[in-house]
From TrEMBL, chain A:
Thylakoid recorded as keyword: no
MF term (GO), any: hydrolase activity
Residue intervals of the Carboxyltransferase domain: 25-307
Annotated protein name in UniProt: Carboxyltransferase domain-containing protein
Pfam families for this protein: CT_A_B
InterPro entries documented for this protein: CT_A_B, Cyclophilin-like_dom_sf, PxpC
Keywords noted in UniProt: ATP-binding, Hydrolase, Nucleotide-binding
Species of provenance: Liquorilactobacillus capillatus DSM 19910
TrEMBL record, chain B:
UniProt domain Carboxyltransferase: residue ranges: 5-206
Cross-referenced PANTHER family: 5-OXOPROLINASE SUBUNIT B
Protein name: Allophanate hydrolase 2 subunit 1
UniProt GO MF annotations: ATP binding; hydrolase activity
Keyword Glycoprotein: no
SMART domains xrefs: AHS1
Organism encoding this protein: Liquorilactobacillus capillatus DSM 19910
């Protein structure tokens, strides 16, 4: 099997996919990509199945050598990818020739980046129907751990990609220039257990992501909320739950969260804003806005509808050749030359 | 039957079915029966997480929504026969070595309950415990309820490391640590069985089933540990 070699693993690079939602009743965390939308987009760009495993990297990206020809797409954090000295754009497909090296300059903003590889993604052995890595359980991925220098990631070679020249996703640039970022939330199951003062402080206070932020969850800094006195019985947790600790500070639960928890959940970040939240820089301040269930449903459906439209668009372009005959010939010659090598 | 419950949205793709906030075996068994029924329906449910008095449901927002789903679930709960025809629940035997080397809190619990060492073992192994829920980590079963004399509150300052296999109590609950982890439960002993194996993480027991502990000697402990390491030990079903 062909592979991609890790020359430098970066800070915390792991293999992730959609995760393991079906074993939560047995206490197995879901895991999977922290920024699910960015992960899905990366797979879509390289024409992969939505379950195809991708590389997730945190802050500092890895350095990789491709030992076969394929196509790649990088999404998520503003990670400044460079292919053999040539800067690449995000959210766009590139062909990678056998022997080429991909590296990353210093990250401009964001936290988690994704690299999808065409031909079905990274082909490590699935565990409990997923290739996602949960490092604290040594589960999935490559030996259940963060990737290291010298690791080889199995992939399929991929020589052609349909509608190649349309595989670029441009979204209306959301201006996150303003100092405070709004994160929309729904009332959590224990919202009513908090005093009106605590609720008010939660919605009016400004928070930022603390240093204690990882794949399990982000602890936030900000005003301390009065905590309900009663202990509650543990119950199931979900992605985006905002727990309030005994010190009165919020933790937002993410991909590697425990399946049950005993801290009261004041609110839940809506799915449509979770991608924005997980990529926030620690310097950025945020505030929470309470919205209705209907609004949240509309927002998340809208977000995935845009991906679906893009997928549809790529399908339509499949048999179209908008390129001049010269370009097409150039592509063919390039292919033949590489075959010679 | 008359169960009190309500539906509480947790997110746009999740809801809780919340019953009375008590630790009650009858109520908890209903939650597990309901979980079993719901996961087999084609209502767009992706996953369920049963807990003491709640059932958390994750659903696919492209197939259903809060209103549609809660209407259907209400009908299912009303249909008693589905839930009362509870299938057989397994009782699984877990061997435990109650030795001071493993049970770092044995002395404290014996003092707490004013009982003898033999009485402690007898109390902890005499009857099967219902697995109320799984959580914390894969294979961590929250079970109950233990006899009052051994129901010692958890440590004020949790240990930084509790070894894998430790069997412990915390108040009326008892549980097992499948992986080394920080923890404040009172350690009574250790099982040689591999409760979690990252290469074969398939669950060996489920919430709603029962665990019965069996006291074993240290010799047996090391013997079973060897078998387990070679993948040749399987948990015994008692029924």
């Amino acid at each position: 099997m062909k592979t991609i070699e890790i020359l430098d693993a970066g800070l915390a690079t792991t293999i992730q996919d959609l995760g393991r939602p079906h074993y939560q009743a047995e206490g197995v965390p879901v895991s999977g990509a922290v920024d699910m939308l960015a992960y899905c987009l990366a797979n879509l760009l390289v024409d992969n199945d939505e379950k195809a495993a991708a590389l997730e990297f945190c802050f500092r990206g890895p350095k990789l050598r491709f030992l076969c020809t394929t196509f790649i797409a990088i999404t998520g954090s503003k990670s400044q990818p460079v292919l053999d000295g040539q800067p690449l754009m995000l959210n766009k497909v590139y062909k990678v020739q056998k022997g080429q090296t991909l590296s990353f300059e210093a990250m401009i903003s964001g936290r988690y980046g994704y690299l999808a590889v065409a031909g079905g993604g990274l082909l490590t052995t699935p565990v409990l129907a997923s290739r996602s890595t949960t490092t604290r359980l040594k589960l999935g991925g490559l030996a259940g751990r963060i990737l290291r220098e010298g690791d080889h990631l199995p992939v399929h070679e991929c020589l052609v990609l349909p509608s190649l020249y349309f595989r670029e996703f441009t979204s209306e640039k959301e201006v996150v220039k303003q100092e405070q970022v709004m994160i929309r939330v729904l009332k959590g199951p224990q919202w009513g257990a908090f005093s009106p003062d605590a609720q008010k402080l939660f919605l009016e206070g400004h928070f930022s992501i603390s240093q204690q932020a990882d794949r399990m969850g982000y602890r936030l800094q900000g005003p301390k909320l009065p905590v309900p006195r009663n202990n509650m019985l543990s119950e199931g947790t979900i992605l985006g739950n905002i727990q309030i600790t005994r010190e009165g500070l919020p933790i937002v639960l993410l991909a590697d969260r425990q399946t049950t928890g005993g801290y009261p959940v004041i609110a839940t970040v809506i799915m449509a804003d979770l991608g924005k939240f997980v990529q926030l820089d620690s310097k950025k301040e945020m505030y929470f806005k309470l919205i209705s269930l209907d609004e949240a449903v509309t927002a998340v459906r809208g977000q995935y509808a845009r991906l679906k439209e893009f997928k549809q668009f790529l399908k339509q372009k499949r048999y179209q050749y908008p390129l001049g005959p010269a370009r097409k010939t150039a592509q063919k010659i390039e292919y033949l030359l590489n075959k010679e090598k | 039957m008359g169960y009190n419950y309500q539906f509480v949205p947790v997110g746009e793709q999740s809801l809780n079915i919340v019953f009375d906030e008590v630790i009650d075996a009858r109520e908890n068994r209903l939650i597990h029966s309901l979980a079993d029924v719901l996961i087999k329906t084609e209502l767009g449910i992706i996953a369920v997480i049963p807990a003491y008095h709640t059932l958390t449901i994750n659903f696919d927002i492209f197939q259903t929504d809060f209103l549609k789903l809660t209407t259907k679930i209400t009908q299912i709960i009303k249909n008693h026969s589905l839930l009362t025809s509870a299938e057989r629940r397994r009782i699984i035997e877990v061997p435990v070595c109650y030795d001071e080397e493993f049970g770092l809190d044995l002395k404290a619990v014996i003092e707490h309950g004013c009982i003898t060492f033999d009485e402690l073992i007898q109390m902890h192994t005499s009857s099967p415990y219902l697995i109320y829920m799984m959580g914390f980590m894969p294979g961590f079963a929250y079970m109950g309820s233990v006899a009052d004399p051994i129901a010692m509150p958890r440590l004020k300052n949790p240990r930084a490391k509790v070894p894998a296999g430790s069997v412990a109590v915390a108040g009326k609950q008892t549980g097992m640590y499948p992986i080394e982890a920080p923890g404040g439960w009172r350690l009574l002993g250790r099982t040689p069985v591999r409760l979690y194996d990252p290469k074969h993480p398939e669950p060996q027991y489920y919430a709603g089933e029962y665990i019965k502990f069996k006291a074993i000697s240290k010799t047996d402990y090391y013997y079973i540990q060897k078998l387990a390491a070679a993948g040749m030990y399987e948990l015994k079903e008692l029924n």
